Amino acid sequence: MKSFTLIAAVLAASSSAAIAAPAGQSNGVLADGDGMTLYIFDNDTAGTSNCYGGCAKSWPPFIAAAGASAEGAFTLVERKDGAMQWALDGQPLYYWAGDRKPGDINGDGVGGVWHVLN
Which PANTHER family match (predicted)? Predict the structure, then answer.
């Protein structure tokens, strides 16, 4: 897991939570602007998402707003459908369908390959 500092306004890109930029930490872990936890997937490679189909239904990718630009450690990864997904140091970021409210971390450790960043 990586450590990082709160970066609240670094990438404010959209008013829609589903396509907002990473905003900082919630409950001590990386979260979007609404406090929903973001996860990484061990089966991804730097700059490449390997979560599609059923995987992406359970682990929705953290999609960037059109025209969003990467800054600092936050990068963008192009998905197979052309959508741009937020990444941290090239590692694509996802939500977990089992998280219901800001601060939930129910996906941490799922299958031994999904992890929060704190």
Answer: BLL4220 PROTEIN
